[in-house]
Amino acid sequence: MFTVFRMLLTLIHFSCDLFAGFYNCCMIVHRKCTEIWYRENLRTETEMLTRVANEMKKLPRHLVIIFGAKEDTVFDCIRIIGWCITLGIPYISFFDISGYLVRNENLLKYELAKRRPDLLDRISWSKPNAGFTQNGITDFKLKTRISLLCASDGKKEIVSLTKTLAEAVVTGTIKPEEINIDLLNEKLNSRGIPDPDMGLIYGRLCSTYGVLPWQTRITEFYTLPLHVSLSAKDFTCLLEKYSKSEQRFGK
Questions:
Q1: Is 139 exposed, middle or buried (0-12, 13-18, 19+ CB in 10 A)?
Q2: Could you tell me the pTM of the whole model?
Q3: Which helix (H) or strand (E) holds 160?
Q4: Transmembrane ranges (predicted)?
Q5: Residue 129: enclosing H or E segment and its boundaries?
Q6: Over 50: is that where the pLDDT of 136 sits?
């Protein structure tokens, strides 16, 4: 009996590995086809995005994309940046808990310049404590601000701030009664950008992975339908859901 169960378990594991291998191969082919389609149909895609945007009641001002533990997301970022600029979304944040994008920022910029050189003059890369204004304007030109976030910008940031404030209270630099909501908002919003009003979870798990827990209190979250590739149609469908949603801000 034990031998039968062992053979059955081995067969199940083999079947799962075989399915995973087939699925990964399909995703690789799908990604290549998406790249070819994207390059050859950019004009049609832009026209579709512009038409859909004109029909929407509202668009997010700050969109956060959550990749979770997924890596190799450079091409996805480039496409999303292009869509958001076409739609006029002024703030985009990309979050991956592994820090892949933060470590490969130069690669992202290189691929963006290679694939979409027309977007370079319309992008501003944000850094912590950059001190920019919240109207999306830099050097008198309308630009989309892009932030690359990792785990240290989420829960770790709150933990770090808590330790800093505790040390300040001990040393007498700040009084306990001076610690309030306004102070926390000021310290946690170091980039000076508005809180995200829409979040897209890129993957199969419905989890925020600890992204900006303080700033996403009233963010509308949606799960993307695909784990590897996202089409412009999928993107606009999610934006349409957001446009029809009623944000009551906790009321």
A1: exposed
A2: 0.69
A3: helix 155-171
A4: none
A5: none
A6: no
Q: Report the chain's terminal Cα–Cα distance, integer Å.
A: 60
**What is the set of domains in the chain, with CATH numbers?**
58-127+140-245 (3.40.1180.10)
Which among 146, 75, 84, 65 has a CA at the least distance from the CA of 110? 75
Structure tokens at 149: 């976030």
Give the pLDDT of residue 152. 74
pLDDT tens string 61-120: 999 998 876 667 888 899 899 999 989 999 999 988 888 888 889 999 999 999 999 899
Cβ contacts of 39 within 8 Å, gap of 6 or more: 115
Q: What are the percentages of helix, strand and coil residues in the chain, rounded to 5?
A: 55, 15, 35
Contact 81, 38 (CB under 8 A): no
According to DSSP, the β-strands at 198-201 and 62-68 are parallel
